[in-house]
Every structure is written in C-alpha cells, then in structure tokens.
C-alpha cells in the first residue's frame, strides 16, 4: 500500500471517529458534515471524497460496529462453548449501551427513509447473518441437549431481547442509581439465557398467537 493510500485510510478513520464522537455527544439531528470536518481539522469538501452523505457515513459506522462484533463472536466460537459465545455477545453490546441503542435507532430510521442506501444495508445484514449462522449450531445443540421445544430462532431472539432491556437499564439515569454489581448483572443474564432452554411449554413459543 502506498503512503498516499495509507494517509487516505487514516483520514477516513479519523472522520468516522469524529462522527461517532459527535453522534454520541449531540445526536444525529444536530451534527452536520461541517461539524465533523471541523473536529477532524479538514475542509468540508474533503469528507465527500470518502462519503457521499452523512447518512452513508453513519451506515459505515454501523457496518464497522457489526464487523467488530462478528470478529469477537468468531473468536469466542473457537471455544466451542455456547456460554462463552453468549458472554462475548453480552459484553460487546453492553460495554457501551448508549452506543448500541443509538446505532439501532439510527439503523431503523435510515432503513425506513433512505432507499438509496440499500447496498450498505445489504452489507450490514450480510455481516449480521454471518455471525448468527455461526451461533446457530451451538444454540441448536444446547436446545437438543435440554430436550427443549424452543426453536433456535426464538432462543436467539430472547438473547437479543435481554440485551435490549439491559442496555436501556444501563443507559437510564434513574435505574443506574439502583444498580449493584454490573458484572453480577451480566452474569445473571448469562445464566438466565442458558437456563431458558430448560423451560418446557405445552405449546412451542414460535407457534403462539397474539
């Protein structure tokens, strides 16, 4: 790689870092390309050499976030231990709950309003599906060992729901005052999800109707 290419990538990463910082500090409705450029110390037009719009920049942040999670889970999967994989997932998502919640809100907002971003969403969803496929055999084996009627999809959905609720609690100024040991909370969540496969229902969860 040439020095010019290295400098280009370094500048692009600096733009992403600045955008993430401003998003977490101010929210997406407030920040502008001008503000990002000012924080990096470059001209506004320089950002457009890397990203066509603020929306594309945000989606690239989401893609980088999911890529990092995928790498984390692939490493955890080498243990062949579902508990370690789940712990890696919980730890990653809940290390910065405000970031997780913000990125999810931004994803939903952009998905509903920006058809021109479909190629970026395709990449984002491909990454997410890749680590879900990686987790699937471990979840299936766990449920079979427990002779559980729960489907792997329902189990993974339950894990996602636990993360969502916990992220909201950890991000809440009210509930933070009542939290005890954060690591103890994460350990309790892990045990709850592992025990979930032991539950038996007269009707499989996936067939329940509203």
UniProtKB/TrEMBL annotation:
It comes from the Bacteria. Residues 32-51 bind DNA. PROSITE patterns: HTH_TETR_2 (PS50977). One of its GO terms (molecular function) is DNA-binding transcription factor activity. Keywords: DNA-binding. Residues 9-69 form the HTH tetR-type domain. It holds the Pfam family TetR_N. This is TetR family transcriptional regulator. It comes from Agitococcus lubricus.
